[in-house]
Design a protein that fits this description.
Blueprint: E1 42-44, H1 63-88, H2 102-107, E2 117-119, H3 125-131, H4 135-143, H5 168-180, E3 187-192, H6 199-211, E4 215-221, E5 224-225, E6 228-229, H7 240-245, E7 250-254, H8 258-273, E8 279-284, H9 303-310, H10 314-324, H11 330-354, H12 372-388
Parallel strand pairs: 1-7, 2-3, 3-4, 4-8, 7-8
Antiparallel strand pairs: 5-6
This protein binds thiamine diphosphate.
Length: 391
């Protein structure tokens, strides 16, 4: 755009005048032409894949806290593996495994208080366990029993949505409620790299930034949105710059580093509670397993892409860190694994006895009033159950 200039007037000439060139005088433009500096986006890693710790960043949590986190990670994996076995044996519905994403999951909720809120995605059961969902409830949820779906009454979590990205705006809405009520709490909302392509997520980032909503956006970049790799989803090499584009303080974090995840979310949550507005965290991790149990990744991604992530396992690296600190040894690691497996089995057995299928209910929870067509279908279905002798 050209700069504003003062108007130049053509000088009057007389025959005796020589021709004088009049230079227009420049005034300052109203348009600031200083190049735009988007600033630096920090990248945080404290514990690398060789379990080397950056001493200057180590939050130095106390021993009990460090071991509690370890148990949370191991329990999450034990639950994930049991769910997969149960699904393969026909005892569980379709679900989304989170193998390799355990640190990302737990790190985003460990710093939260009970008064803070959490809005999970469908892959967040590690975070849900930490927040206080029982394993039985989660088994029921994924096996299709509706009593498994509502968050436990004493847990400030929202239900998740399968419609990608659709839960992010409502989460910002809850955070705005905290603003209106002057509550010193925050909301953490989790979504994937694929969800970043949904318009609603951009709206949520923008609205939260403008209104200083006390929300921490955790974009769990696991590299894949089912079969779509990030390179086909975004022209940028990172997603943290998305947040920066909306004017949010943004950071890229090693999502397989439980210390970095916990610290980044803790700092963002403190800022949000103090009234300093939202933060965007891109947590870099990798979906090691299936998108869901209905997926077969071998048809769209090469094993060579997965293999390097084995060495970046968030649990192994944390165990090495704890071993170097003298808090764990191999015997203790084995014992904790066995204990966690045992806890999952006990919960599974309770689920087996507690969960009672009520096939008559399937028409009950969607419409307040059934249309005549649905009423007819319901009747036909009930007659069929009757004929088959189903309770
Ligand atoms: C609006 C919408 N579009 C498409 C889908 C189908 N779908 C289910 S999961 C998924 C991929 C989401 O990827 P990402 O957000 O990266 O999360 P991830 O599953 O990797 O954790 C898609 C496209 C959907 N559920 N909702």
């Amino acid at each position: 755009m050209p700069h504003e200039t003062t108007e130049s007037t053509t000088p009057e000439r007389t025959a005796s005048d020589s021709i004088i060139e009049v230079q227009p005088t420049r005034t300052r433009s109203a348009m600031d032409t200083t190049p735009i500096d988007l600033g630096r986006i920090e990248v945080l890693q404290i514990l690398d894949e060789h379990a080397q710790v950056d001493e200057s960043l180590d939050p130095r949590y106390d021993d009990e806290y460090l071991l509690r986190i370890h148990r949370g990670l191991v329990l999450t994996r034990a639950f994930d593996q049991r769910m997969l076995t149960m699904q393969r044996q026909g005892e569980m519905g379709t679900f989304a495994p989170n193998l390799g994403q355990e640190a990302c999951q737990l790190g985003q909720v460990i710093p939260l208080t009970k008064d803070d809120w959490y809005s999970p995605s469908y892959r967040s059961f590690g975070a849900q366990l930490w927040r206080g969902w029982s394993m039985e409830r989660l088994f029921k949820l994924w096996a299709g029993y509706h009593e498994g779906f509502p968050p436990p009454p004493d847990v400030n979590d929202l239900p998740f949505s399968i419609v990608i990205g659709s839960h992010v705006l409502p989460a910002v809405g809850v955070a705005m409620g905290m603003n209106y009520r002057s509550e010193p709490n925050c909301m953490v909302v989790n979504f994937g790299d694929g969800a970043c392509s949904q318009g609603a997520v951009s709206e949520a980032l923008n609205y939260a930034a403008v209104n200083k909503a006390p929300v921490v956006f955790v974009c769990e970049n696991n590299g894949w949105a089912i079969s779509t790799p990030l390179t086909k989803q975004s022209a940028t090499t990172n997603l943290a710059s998305r947040g920066a584009g909306f004017g949010l303080p943004s950071i890229r974090v090693d999502g397989n580093d439980i210390l970095a995840m916990t610290l980044a979310v803790d700092q963002a949550a403190r800022r949000a509670r103090a009234g300093d507005g939202p933060t965007f965290i891109e947590a870099v991790t990798f979906r090691m397993s299936l998108h869901t149990t209905a997926d077969d990744p071998t048809v769209y991604r090469a094993q060579e892409l997965v293999d390097p992530w084995e060495a970046r396992c968030p649990i192994t690296r944390y165990e090495t860190y704890l071993q170097r600190k003298g808090l764990l040894d191999t015997g203790a690691i084995d014992r904790i694994r066995e204990e966690c497996d045992g806890e999952v089995i006990v919960a599974r057995d309770r689920f087996r006895t507690d969960a009672v299928a009520r096939p008559r209910e399937i028409f009950d929870h969607i419409y307040g009033e059934l249309s005549p067509e649905l009423e007819a279908q319901k009747q036909a279905y009930l007659d069929r159950l009757e004929r088959k002798g189903v309770e």
